[in-house]
Write a structure and sequence with these properties.
Blueprint (H helix, E strand, L loop, with lengths): L8 H19 L6 E2 L14 H16 L2 E2 L9 E2 L6 E6 H7 L4 H4 L6 E3 L10 E3 L11 E5 L2 E2 L18 E8 L13 E7 L7 E9 L3 E12 L5 E12 L10 E14 L2 E14 L7 E5 L2 E4 L17 E5 L12 E5 L4 E15 L4 E21 L5 E2 H11 L7 E6 L10 E28 L2 E19 L2 E6 L7 E6 L4 E3 L6 E3 L10 E19 L2 E19 L2 E4 L9 E4 L6
Parallel strand pairs: 1-11, 7-10
Antiparallel strand pairs: 2-3, 4-9, 5-6, 7-8, 9-10, 11-12, 12-13, 13-14, 14-15, 15-20, 16-17, 18-19, 20-21, 21-24, 22-24, 23-27, 24-25, 24-26, 25-30, 26-29, 27-28, 30-31, 32-33
């Protein structure tokens, strides 16, 4: 991608270190920070007078409707929720804690018509938006940070680029209306996470959370003024955590953290803000699990696998080697990809942004939002093949027949540790996948507004994004596992007394007998999006009219390779297929 290289980590570290040092200096004079934890608030005794409860509820509703929202509109300083002509849902930091969402996707269900699936773990959820049919992922959801899209194009990793912590001031979720004019032109849901900033009064909080499942988490935030009456403010905060997870895979299911810093300045006619975020966090990714369904509407636990806590992850299958290239000659070393299932799905991402907002007395206002993003968004996980569990002996006979092997073979099955496997135990076939995505993006949105006459504001804007993605994926091989929680892989060899047939490799991996099912493709693409829009907001008494037009041009180019398949070892007694490199295709 032209004009933008990966963000310099040293510059980012220097900026955050500078804010940390400033925070330490101010902490010496600051009052004692408020102590907080991440656990849900304690329940309180309900009032005996229902009128008090109704009054408090009504006041809270009025305050919510009077809240100013800056997402999905071009008005300088934002507009009140009650004045907006489209759906707006907000949640403050305290409200987010009270909701206690299990993930970012889970939080989005507070917006009407949003349905996030509960599967997949903390990241990688499918998010449905009412009125916009989609089969998987979240193509009609854009996540923003301080008004800038985290990545200009939708991809499966979008929700994995955000973690909830004490650095979030509030969420503004917008659907429909003229919000589609701004940013990357999302017609569905725009979820804008707005960061907390420092203020003239030093403020901070710190929390330590211990829980079951081997969970420990540390959260903190500190906001402070820089200098005396300088108009500069800073903040720094984030979290670190580690947990075995509800579905314990025998290694850390969730591990990592996030660090965010801001630097803001009061101007005569507005404000200037810089922010940086470093995310390095990974989460176990979980798909289908076996459940017995003997009759319609009747469900029960599958023997040996709890639907609430079971997982196919284990120390026995944690480390794998995916062979990707042929090894025909004696003594050659197979080439491929070593994977660690503990990496799950997550991100190692660096973000650097700036916001400028100005409003002048003559009716002119200006806004500019810049965000640079670079890093890796990877997935290492088991995906279900969709086949029901069966006994090991039945699997072997069926697999041998599908590969066209003789029917008079004697089978030997062992676990990966060499111990003999039980031919009568139930087994499952899972699909381990490794997906590596290296992303880079630079996006900027510029708006210029003018109050034409009282109650009517005309806005001209430009959104430009330059971004790229390098995508590597190994997908299509299968692993034979015990159909139980934390299973062992099973290695199967067949023999007719003269020839030995390897139904799996020494890891319990085997390839489908259809070569086209094995993928190890490599692709890289780059794109430029340029959009111009004109929007008008007109208040006439109790009426409000919003309208506008947007013109967008996308320029996309790239290449892909590895589209041919063949035999990995040129050995008729092994069932090993591969995807060979092919010339780059335009």
């Amino acid at each position: 991608m032209k004009g933008w290289k990966q963000i310099d980590k040293r510059a980012l570290a220097t900026a955050i270190s500078a804010v940390l040092m400033t925070g330490a200096l101010h902490a010496q004079d600051a009052s004692t920070p408020t102590q907080q934890t991440q656990s849900p608030p304690a329940k309180t005794q309900a009032s005996g007078d229902p009128r008090q409860s109704s009054s408090a509820s009504a006041n809270k509703t009025v305050q919510s409707l009077d809240q100013v929202v800056v997402t999905g509109n071009a008005t300088a300083g934002g507009i009140k929720k009650i004045d907006a002509s489209y759906s707006i849902t907000t949640a403050t930091l305290q409200q987010i804690k009270e909701l206690n969402p299990v993930s970012v996707a889970d939080l989005l269900k507070i917006s009407p018509g949003i349905y996030p699936e509960s599967s997949g773990g903390q990241t990688g959820a499918n998010i449905e938006v009412a009125g916009f049919p989609s089969d998987s992922g979240a193509p009609f959801v854009t996540l923003q940070l301080n008004g800038s899209p985290l990545f200009p194009k939708w991809d499966y990793f979008t929700d994995a680029m955000v973690r909830l912590d004490d650095t979030i001031d509030r969420l503004e979720a917008v659907q429909g209306g003229t919000s589609v004019l701004y940013g990357n032109g999302q017609p569905g849901l725009i979820a804008n996470f707005i960061l907390r900033e420092g203020s003239s009064t030093p403020t901070g909080d710190i929390g330590v959370t211990y829980g079951s499942e081997g969970m420990v988490r540390v959260d903190g935030f500190y906001g402070f003024p820089i200098g005396k009456d300088s108009g500069w403010y800073g903040s720094i905060g984030g979290f670190w955590r580690k947990s075995d997870g509800v579905r314990d895979p025998q290694f850390a299911a969730d591990k990592g953290g996030q660090l965010t810093a801001t630097l803001s300045h009061d101007l005569e006619h507005g404000s200037l803000m810089f922010y940086a975020r470093e995310l390095k966090d990974k989460n176990q990714f979980v798909t289908d699990t076996p459940i017995l369904n003997p009759a319609p509407g009747r469900f029960s636990e599958y023997p040996g696998f709890s639907p609430l806590t079971g997982t196919f992850g284990s120390n026995a299958n944690r480390y794998q080697f995916l062979e990707l290239a042929p090894c025909y000659t004696a003594g050659c070393s197979p080439s491929g990809q070593n994977i660690d299932m503990a990496n799950g799905q997550g991100g190692d991402v660096h973000m650097l942004g700036a916001n400028l907002d100005l409003a002048f007395d003559n009716g002119w206002s200006l806004s500019d939002k810049l965000l640079l993003v670079a890093g890796d968004m990877d997935t290492t996980a088991f995906f279900s093949t969709g086949d029901n569990p069966t006994t090991l002996s039945s699997f072997i006979s069926g697999a041998a027949a599908s590969f066209g092997l003789p029917n008079n073979l004697t089978a030997t099955a062992t676990y990966r540790n060499g111990q003999p496997a039980n031919m009568n135990e139930n087994v499952t076939v899972q699909n381990p996948e490794y997906i590596h995505k290296k992303i880079q993006s630079a996006s900027n949105e510029f708006r210029l507004s003018k109050e034409i006459f009282e109650g009517n504001t005309l806005t001209f804007g430009n959104y430009t994004a330059v971004y790229s993605e390098h995508h590597l994926e190994e997908d299509g091989l299968n692993m034979l596992l015990q159909a139980k929680n934390n299973p062992n892989p099973i290695v199967v060899n067949l023999s007719d007394g003269t020839h030995n047939y390897a139904l799996t490799d020494s890891q319990g991996l085997f390839w489908n007998n259809q070569p086209q099912s094995w993928m190890a493709f490599n692709e890289k693409w780059h794109a430029t999006t340029t959009a111009f829009y004109l929007a008008d907001e007109w208040n006439v008494g109790k009426w409000r009219f919003d309208g506008g037009a947007r013109m967008q041009h996308d320029d996309i180019g790239g290449w892909f390779q590895n589209t041919a398949s063949g035999d990995l070892d040129n050995n008729p007694y092994t069932c090993l297929l591969y995807t060979s490199p092919s010339p780059r295709d335009p």
